[in-house]
Amino acid sequence: MSPWIWGIVMLVAIYAAKWGADQMVEPLKKVRRQWGITQVAGASLLAILTASPEVGISTVSAIRNSGDIGLGTLLGSNIIAIPLIMTVAYAASRKKFGGKGKDEDQKELERKHQEHLREHLLSLSKRAATVLALPYVVIIAIVALLTMPPGWRGLQPVDGWIMLGVFFLFLGQALWRGRKEGEDVKWSKKQIKLAALGAVALIAGAYFTVTAAENVISAIGISQIIGGIFITGTLSTAPEVFKTWKIVGSGQTTAGSTSVIGDKAITLSLGLVPLALVTTPINDFQLFWINLVFVTLMPVAFSLMVLKNKHSGLKLWNVLLLDALLLLYIFIILKWVLNLF
């Protein structure tokens, strides 16, 4: 089959995974309200869904013995996502306020929106750094400890069980530190059925994404890990881009942009579990450690800028700095790893 046809199959499969995740968003919001979880902590819960395409791709690649595609997808999406999402969020926050209604919550959102327009700021809660970004950096450090020392290099089953525990610790601390009084919510059979159908679409989308990616990568003649980084890793961030534009445009800047941090923490912890359980070697150690360095730089830079800014959030130059780190990463990969120029 032509690589162009496989490319179309991959795009359709990623859209199917996105649609599947979308069907579970509203039920998850109801769970957040019922449990009394705040906006920042709720971002980590929402991240379970936005991370699910990458976790699904990782799982299917492990089953199909194409671990490098899954590993490349996890690393690539974790590097690309933060600068891309913050850029989209900043652009969306420049729009006219998109919230509807005249209740107190909407008035407060509009007031904050006008304030960060005056300050040329993407307004974010500092808790986004302490609850999401800094624990994410700890997860990256654990990944490095488990995979980089010569005697432990690669992913073994024991690493999978450790990362599964890390995932539950991250999610637990995020939810516990953001609790408030819960609300009564009503559930409909239609929502439950759509959520179940969404789970099926998510699994099918992940399977065909990996299958199509294998064929496209083979036709192009690049390694699976590079294909995972630049093809599936990039495309898997598309659902987050659309969600960010919509939610930030409604005035919910923290909820709309910082779920990407929780997304990447979950991607890197839970996403490595299936690859570890089938034992995935690191075939290109130079490429791996360079990626891990930039995976670390993104949340560290984000945290420092959010915590140090007088007005909580990111200025335009902060967003451009994150973009510059991404461009530097691409330059290093193309020049010193792939030797393309």
TrEMBL record:
* Signal sequence region: none
The protein's location, in the record's own words, is:
Membrane
Q: Which GO terms describe its cellular component?
A: membrane
> What is the protein's membrane topology class?
Multi-pass membrane protein
Its keywords, alphabetically, are: Membrane, Transmembrane, Transmembrane helix
The cross-references to InterPro entries, in alphabetical order and at most eight, read: NaCa_Exmemb, NCX_ion-bd_dom_sf
**What phylogenetic lineage does the species belong to?**
Bacteria, Bacillati, Bacillota, Bacilli, Bacillales
- For this entry, the protein name equals Sodium:calcium exchanger
